[in-house]
């Protein structure tokens, strides 16, 4: 516990009831006695439309685990790039105006930004920090503008350059930049055109939600354990970056050769395409379970022989560790990775499973075949190794204690200026 509780403003475009790691952080800070206020938008991720529960009763979503939730309107994500761009712009505009007006009269000791895409969510946080005379922390979980180029949302050099200037403006005015991966350091430093002290660039990785760290595992209501087949589970966003064409190619190549079932859980822009392709290819070994609450995942993972993580190959994704990697490690199940860079390093270094090159369906099929042929006891050892690696490198209590120390140091630093 800190010497005294602090008033913390969390700025995030995505928040409960959307399944996001920031929910976990807000709950823990609140339980530690801090007064937490969350500035966020109306829930619409990942389906792209406003949650029905919120539409029917928005007053049910103004408090979360003791934290006050302040919401601003935004354009839903939809299913197209134009609506996604409007979604990004509408949040930072509404949060920078209506959001700050709703926060009038409130005092904050620290402002924390959950900086997955879009980075523009940091702009209302910087404005709040200036108005409230509070230090601003940005948890950098995506690299902009590189991510926009990597996923094909934006290709025009001029527009990418403009966004690069915006990123530089944001980073140069931030007190602390928290980096989810060691691979982010050089990219972030290129946008810090003003001298920045090394202590303000902090390695701060993600952790697994508490659901994955429980000592007991619930029974799954989504899937039954079947020891007659090797079960591979993918859970998360079903988007273009996850390279589902390669995953389906791997699944198809193993039909009739290895008894494998592929279970895909989640929702996203590729959902309709996946459903169409599974039917067209007659892939009876691929199950699409749809989107389900986070609390259902531990039971589902317990039914898996391996957990799958994948990302397309490019220089940006190679520096990124998807948040699901920590959840997979904490779950104590072997991991299959069709992924390059930092995430592949973690899988290999931890001894938690097998990895192959991004986008290589044949290699994915091969490491799946190899893992399916491994003795069950050996797979159990892989899961244990992954769990131990998680506890050593991504322990949430340790990371949260470090964040609180940063809040305290930043407050003292701000006060001495």
Keywords, separated by commas or semicolons:
eight-stranded mixed β-sheet; globular; Rossmann fold; six-stranded parallel β-sheet; 42% helix; 417 residues; 2 domains; alpha/beta
Which superfamily, in CATH terms, is the homologous superfamily of the largest domain? Answer: Glycogen Phosphorylase B
Span of the ends, CA to CA: 26 Å
Give the strand content: 15-25%
Major sheet: arrangement of strands: 3-4-2-1-5-6-7-8
By DSSP (H or I, 4+ residues per run), the number of helices equals 15
How would the global form be characterised?
globular
CATH C-level label of the largest domain: Alpha Beta
Brief overview:
The protein has 417 residues and is α/β, with parallel strands linked by helices.
